[in-house]
């Protein structure tokens, strides 16, 4: 079946530091890839997505590139802010053999950014 | 405002006492789904629904029921809750086969 493996953390950075959160996946089909963010006490929000190989998703200064050859979708940001403190989930969406385009999530990475 | 709402947001109950967590979306989405989030396990799908009166099991359906009588609502029912169902629950919806799922704010359930 499908699976997502991401760096578990926690990750603690100083403001303006460079962020990388690694994510690799296993899928039998041609999945779409996502990063979701969960701020304290809130639900998940879609941060960015990529639907085919070599696509780059970007939003709010975050980027991730769909690398089929390495089955990876690493999240990066050049300069993090305190407001980026949250839990980040890597996920893929693929048909499960039927009609369910379900999301398969990694375990999440807690990011704390200190001023 | 387009949104997915869940009620209650917090619930503490005892083993065996039936409960229902409601989920409603105002985006006319066909697809709705329930996930549970547990530390170290990420989110796992419990049940999903492709449309009214069409539901199916996800990865961890044991101990849960759902119904989809109206397009906007997708309640999660625990007939006889047990402590291992203590978790954070999220409802999500999606339009047809589009990629983005919209998540509710979550319901934190504690079963003692």
Care to describe what's here?
The complex is a heterodimer of chains A (115) and B (112). By secondary structure, chain A is mainly β. In chain A, 0% of the residues lie in helices and 53% in strands. In chain A, the strands form three sheets. In chain A, strands 2, 5, 6, 10, 11 and 12 form a six-stranded mixed beta sheet that branches. A four-stranded antiparallel beta sheet of chain A has the order 3-9-8-7, with no helix packed on it. The mean pLDDT of chain A is 91. With 112 residues, chain B is mainly beta. Chain B is globular and about 40 Å long. The model of chain B has no long low-confidence stretch (mean pLDDT 93). Helix content of chain B is 0%, strand content 51%. Chain B has strands spanning 4-7, 10-13, 19-25, 31-38, 42-51, 54-57, 65-66, 76-78, 87-94, 102-103, 107-111. Chain B starts with a strand and ends with a strand. In chain B, strand 4 and strand 5 (42-51) form a beta hairpin.
Low-confidence stretches of chain A: none
Mean pLDDT value of chain A: 91
Q: Per the principal axes of the C-alpha atoms, what is the gross shape of chain B? A: globular
Global mean pLDDT of chain B:
93
Largest sheet: number of strands, sense, barrel closure of chain A: 6 strands, mixed
- Number of contiguous helices of chain B: 0
Name the structural class of chain A.
mainly beta
Low-confidence stretches of chain B: none
Rg over C-alpha atoms of chain B, rounded to the nearest angstrom: 13 Å
The largest β sheet of chain B comes out as: 7 strands, mixed
What pattern of helices and strands is seen along the backbone of chain A?
A: EEEEEEEEEEEE
């Amino acid at each position: 079946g499908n699976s997502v493996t991401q760096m578990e953390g926690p990750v603690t950075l100083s403001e303006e530091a460079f962020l990388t959160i690694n994510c690799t996946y296993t899928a039998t089909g041609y999945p779409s890839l996502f990063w979701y963010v969960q701020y304290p006490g809130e639900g998940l929000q879609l941060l960015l997505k990529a639907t085919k190989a070599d696509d780059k998703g970007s939003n709010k200064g975050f980027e991730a590139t769909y690398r089929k050859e390495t089955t990876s979708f690493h999240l990066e940001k050049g300069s993090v802010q305190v407001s980026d403190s949250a839990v980040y989930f890597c996920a893929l969406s693929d048909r499960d053999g039927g009609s369910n385009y379900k999301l398969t999530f990694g375990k999440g990475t807690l990011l704390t950014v200190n001023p | 405002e387009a949104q997915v709402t869940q009620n209650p947001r917090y619930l503490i109950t005892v083993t065996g006492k039936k409960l229902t967590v409601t989920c409603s979306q105002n985006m006319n989405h066909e697809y709705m789904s329930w996930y549970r989030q547990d530390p170290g396990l990420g989110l796992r799908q419990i049940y999903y629904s492709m449309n009214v009166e069409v539901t199916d099991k996800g990865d961890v359906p044991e101990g849960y029921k759902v119904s989809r009588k109206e397009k906007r609502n997708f309640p999660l029912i625990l007939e006889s809750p047990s402590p291992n169902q203590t978790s954070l629950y999220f409802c999500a919806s999606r339009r047809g086969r589009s990629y983005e799922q919209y998540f509710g704010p979550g319901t934190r359930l504690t079963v003692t």
